[in-house]
Amino acid sequence: MLNVTRKRLKREKRRRRIITLCCLMVILFFCGVILLSLKNGSQTRRLSYQMCYLILKQIAPNLSENSVLALCEDSENTYETRAESNLIYEKILAQNVTRENVQAAEEQNTQEVQKDDSGETQEASAGAPGGLSLEKLNDFDYLIQNFYTVDSTTTINSSQLNAQSLLEKDCSIQKRTDEEPQILIYHTHASEGYSDSTAGDLSTTVVGVGDRLTQILEETYGYNVLHDTGVYDTDRDQAYSVAAPYIQQILSDHPSIEVVIDLHRDGVADSTRLVTEQNGVQMAQIMFFNGLSRTTAMGDISYLPNPYIEDNLAFSLQMQVASGQLYPDFTRKIYLKGYRYNLHFCPKSLLVEVGAQTNTLEEAMNAMDPLARILDQVLGGN
Predict the structure, then answer these.
(1) Quick one: residue 342, left, alpha or beta (phi over 0 = left, psi -120 to 50 = alpha)?
(2) Phi/psi zone of residue 226: left (φ > 0), alpha (ψ -120 to 50 degrees), beta?
(3) Are the beta carbons of 268 and 358 closer than 8 angstroms?
(4) What pLDDT shows up at residue 16?
(5) 177 vs 54: CA distance, rounded Å
(6) pLDDT at position 11, please?
(7) Residue 281, C-beta contacts closer than 8 angstroms, at least 6 positions apart
(8) 197-203, long-range: CB within 8 Å, 24+ apart, which pairs?
(9) Contact, 190 vs 231, CB < 8 A?
């Protein structure tokens, strides 16, 4: 009887050791899966979650399938943040099309399309209000609602977006008497074209629009402008990373440059038309864009430093205010997004979206006259 009891105790201990070993192996497996998913991105994460789900299902058959599948789906929405080019602006725009369409529909419901005396419809403005109230700019809520679109992936508060301090910053430059450039215009996405652009012809893309802006700034306003027509988006996923060393080299070769403008073309739904009429001329609306090097999930992004964020914000806000005074409805709201977008090269860095793929090249070209005048207003200290 005693021998039987001892054998039973030995079997029970052996069974417990096996169970403990199995549990340790499962724990180690899960740790390995988590480390692997963190290292190798969203596709590996999804496969890892599916493997975990199958193992858990065997261990606990009553496990809620919906909860695990929801976790797998959530993993698809996480951002790859180790390289800025993994979140190129084109992809971000594509992710935001649905949200922007909903916002546009809401604005259209509250802002009926107006008709002029001839009975023709005027397209509703997608941008800043025509009547600017400078007294209200110090009200953070008023400022955000009327001048900015803050992407859901980032945040900003009144200490970071103080209208008075931003408007008081000196964004002016002195026109040069020599031939050294003081303004640089370039295009991270040089291949961005318009509804009637010719494939392979850069003169019909934002590069051609940049030529037009360069011409007006030089001939009408007397600035020295260097227009870089380099193509950096052969691989669009790496465009910002590819462009950065070239722009840095240009600035190193030309220390006289004080203003850097990255000229883009927006991407919207095919039903959206970003058109405004200024002085009887149909033209594309423009939008200023600021990267904050900060996301809601991560906070400040240490590996994408930008010491000039406040200066960037001051430059775009002063441009927006000048536009509202000179050309109501010409600009859309300033877009604030996480990440940096190569706006760290100098204090007066500006990313400008000129219309969208639904605009014609002529409409984009026409927009350069008011844009040049607004630039002159701000850079001239007016």
Answers:
(1) left
(2) beta
(3) yes
(4) 78
(5) 72
(6) 75
(7) 366
(8) 197/361, 202/229, 202/231
(9) yes
* pLDDT given for residue 97 in this prediction: 46
189 contacts: CB under 8 Å, gap ≥ 6: 89, 90, 206, 232, 233, 236, 239, 264, 265
Quote the pLDDT of residue 165: 93
Helix (H) or strand (E) holding 186: strand 183-186
> Which residue type is seen at 88?
I
DSSP assignment string, 54-86 = HHHHHH-TT--HHHHHHHHHHHTTPPP-SSGGG
Q: Count the Cβ atoms, other than its own, within 10 Å of residue 196.
A: 11
Helix (H) or strand (E) holding 276: strand 275-278
* Cβ-contact 204, 361 below 8 angstroms: yes
CB 375 within 8 A of CB 315: no
Segments of the chain with pLDDT less than 50: 37-47, 49, 53, 57, 61-130
What's the pLDDT score for residue 3?
A: 57
Q: In what order do the strands lie in the sheet with 225-227?
A: 148-150, 334-337, 286-291, 348-356, 259-266, 183-186, 225-227
Q: DSSP readout, 318-381?
A: HHHHHHHHHSTTSBBPEEEESS-TT--SSSEEEEEEEEETTS-HHHHHHTHHHHHHHHHHHHTT
- Enter the pTM of the model: 0.69
User: Whats the size of the chain, residue-wise?
Assistant: 382
CA 71 from centre of chain: 27
The C-alpha angle with vertex 90 and arms to 86 and 94, in degrees rounded to 5, equals 105
- Residue with the two structure tokens 């070993």: 21
pLDDT for residue 352:
98
Which residue, among 306, 295, 331, 10, has the nearest Cα to 156 in the 3D structure?
A: 295
β-bridge partners, 278:
281
